[in-house]
Design a protein that fits this description.
The protein is of the alpha+beta class. It has two domains: about 5-180 and about 295-420, FAD/NAD(P)-binding domain; about 185-290, 2-Layer Sandwich (Alpha-Beta Plaits), CATH 3.30.70. Helices cover about 30% and strands about 20% of the residues. The chain contains eleven helices and 22 strands. α6 crosses α7 (about 250-275). The longest helix is centred in the middle third of the chain and has 25 residues, at about 250-275. The protein is globular and about 65 Å long.
């Protein structure tokens, strides 16, 4: 397609970590980029589901934090540091993982600024509603926005929607959950204000409060360890991941039930804390959501699916274009996460074909939708890794637009290294 007929070189669907990484990666590779996001802000689960930690920027465990993600992800961290968020590695006492704690409001602003710096055309309150394709390529997408529907023509596309929305409307085959219909549990992180206690909260008292909650509520909390909690960066608020619930299917009915039951649970949980845990007497529920945290939905067909063995063996490969270092974290049974750790050097490579749509030459995947088998997916899905897979997908999309065909892995690697990414 002649360039004079295109609106953009690359269109990215979804503005979470994968989509932001893809937009930055494509822009740094010289592409004209449009980023389509259904919310009024970027950040994915970090801002739309209150998952206030970036997981996957560092290797698991150890006494010292070892970086696994730089490049586009580091550009976002640098923007947050300018706003006073230190973005230092935090060693979780619950899991032993190294994470980056987030302030969601300053993260929203940081993402706005970093995308503007890279000249990305931003389309908020908009979503990809349809795709026009030939036998082996997408030609355009129809976007539904506040001013109606309009068409974006591009040479290359990236699906970073998390739910594979672009791949779905393009007609790609899908695996739902683990392939047998089972989905990982959803979560409802809660943010609590008004604490009078300083320093550490007594975990045993939280565990006892959960027991009281379960006596009163028809919806049970199945975590028995007191959950994962910390103070919100830049505030005195208490962030708690304690509510996990089964997600039976992807129907609107099930999502509606999940949202409503999650809010009921959060409100009752705070009432119990007020009664049972010293320091919470004047606490209030500062925030749920804006939506439940969705860990898994659809998996579109890719040219390669990262395997369980790839992760366990820490497989490094010549066609690798991103590092992944988060352990396999599965939530197949609500409230009872299972961890498996990465072998080898403590990370494995995401190959280019895991980012490339099967049967479509100009569709690339980023974040939760990259190719991975049901167990490997427990490692690939986290936000730090999504920045890395997104930046690689964005570079691949930009090179596809430039040369009219998919690039070789070596060309993508070369560009990524020039952009400061770790491979």
């Amino acid at each position: 397609m002649p360039r004079t007929e295109t609106d953009f070189d690359v269109v990215v669907a979804g503005g979470g970590a994968g989509g932001v990484g893809a937009a930055i990666g494509a822009a740094r590779a010289g592409a004209r980029v449009a980023l389509v996001e259904k919310y009024g802000f970027f950040g994915g689960a970090a801002t739309n589901a209150q998952v206030l930690a970036y997981c996957g920027f560092f290797h698991h465990g150890g006494d010292t934090a070892v970086r696994a993600v730089e490049g586009a992800g580091e550009a976002v961290l640098a923007q947050m540091r300018k706003q006073g968020v230190d973005c230092q590695a935090y060693h979780s006492p619950t899991t032993g993982n190294w994470i980056v704690l987030l302030d969601p409001e300053r993260l929203k602003l940081a993402l706005d600024r970093v995308l503007a710096e890279h000249g990305v055309e931003v389309l908020l309150h908009s979503r990809v509603a349809a795709a026009s394709r030939t036998a082996d390529a997408i030609e355009s997408v129809t976007v539904a926005g506040m001013d109606g529907r309009f068409r974006l023509i591009a040479e290359s596309f990236v699906d970073a929607s998390g739910d594979a929305n672009l791949a779905l409307v393009a007609g790609q085959p899908m695996r739902i959950g683990d392939g047998e219909g089972r989905l990982q549990a959803f979560t409802m992180p809660i943010r609590i204000g008004g604490l009078t206690v300083e320093g550490r909260v007594d975990r045993q008292r939280l565990i006892a409060a959960v027991d009281t909650f379960n006596e009163r509520s028809p919806y049970k909390i199945t975590r028995s360890d007191g959950g994962i909690y910390t103070r919100v960066a830049g505030s005195t608020d208490f962030w708690w991941l304690i509510i996990d619930r089964e997600m039976p299917d992807l129907s609107s009915k099930s999502f509606t039930a999940a949202e409503r039951s999650g809010r009921e649970m959060a409100n009752l949980m705070v009432e119990v804390l007020q009664e049972k845990v010293p320091g919470f007497e004047t606490a209030w529920l500062a925030q749920t959501g804006p939506q439940i945290g969705v860990r898994e939905t659809r998996h579109p067909a890719a040219r390669y699916s990262i395997t369980h063995d790839d992760v366990l063996n820490g497989r490094l490969r010549e066609d690798g274009v991103a590092r992944a270092s988060w352990p396999i974290e599965l939530h197949s049974e609500a409230g009872k996460p299972i961890y498996e750790h990465i072998g080898g050097e403590g990370y494995y490579h995401i190959p280019l074909d895991a980012l490339h749509a099967a049967g479509l030459s100009n569709l690339w995947y980023a974040g939760r939708v990259i190719g991975a088998d049901p167990r490997a997916y427990g490692s690939t899905r986290v936000m730090g890794t999504a920045f890395a897979s997104g930046e690689a997908a964005g570079v691949a999309a930009a090179l596809t637009a430039r040369q009219g065909k998919p690039p070789a892995p070596q060309a993508v690697r070369k560009q990524l290294v020039a952009q400061g990414a770790l491979i």
